Amino acid sequence: MADKHTPDDHSGTTPDDVRETELIEDGELDGAPEAVDPREEQELRAQLQREMRFDGFEQGIQG
């Protein structure tokens, strides 16, 4: 029984790598995530904290 995780051409890429490349080329994946601006990251974290507090508040009311 052949090992499914080893490519036949021994090019150093796994079938998962090939599939990911195909998805990126098809526009299904964006590729590697871009670096986030530190200010944007700080704003996103603050927004997440506000949403988490609000969710906790809502659960307290419903609870």
Task: Give structural notes.
This protein is mainly α and 63 residues long. The chain has a domain at 36-63. Helix content is 59%, strand content 0%. The protein contains 2 helices and no strands.
Features:
63 residues, 2 helices, mainly alpha, elongated
Question: Briefly, what is this?
Answer:
This protein has 63 residues and is mainly alpha-helical.
Query: What profile does the largest beta sheet have?
Result: none
- Mean residue pLDDT: 76
- The number of helices is 2
Gyration radius, to the nearest Å?
A: 21 Å
Question: Strand-residue fraction?
Answer: under 5%
Write the layout of secondary structure elements.
Elements: H1 15-26, H2 38-62
